[in-house]
Write a structure and sequence with these properties.
By secondary structure, the chain is mainly α. It contains 5 helices and no strands.
Length: 91
């Protein structure tokens, strides 16, 4: 039972950290670009260049699912990031 609880806590922390990182990145890019699509594309480019962030996003997506990640981030461009992260998993 303890392992299951530990896994749930770890998954929750991974989701929270990934969501925080993505949200900060999207908010920063939103100041530079007015188009939601452009914000999403630039965010994906940045995530691809940062292996630790990319791993965190992929792991959060695997562990929590796309709906949970989308709700945790709450930004219009997050769906673009999630779609790309699904592509990272398949690659």
């Amino acid at each position: 039972m303890r392992d299951k609880i530990g896994t749930q806590i770890n998954n929750s922390q991974n989701l929270a950290q990934a969501a925080k990182d993505i949200k900060e990145l999207l908010d920063q890019l939103s100041q530079e670009y007015s188009s939601t699509a452009m914000v999403g594309v630039k965010a994906v480019e940045e995530i691809e260049q940062k292996p630790k962030l990319k791993d965190r996003v992929v792991n959060a997506l695997k562990e929590a699912g796309s709906e949970a990640l989308e709700k945790a981030v709450d930004h219009p461009a997050v769906s673009i990031v999630i779609a790309a992260a699904k592509g990272f998993i398949d690659a």
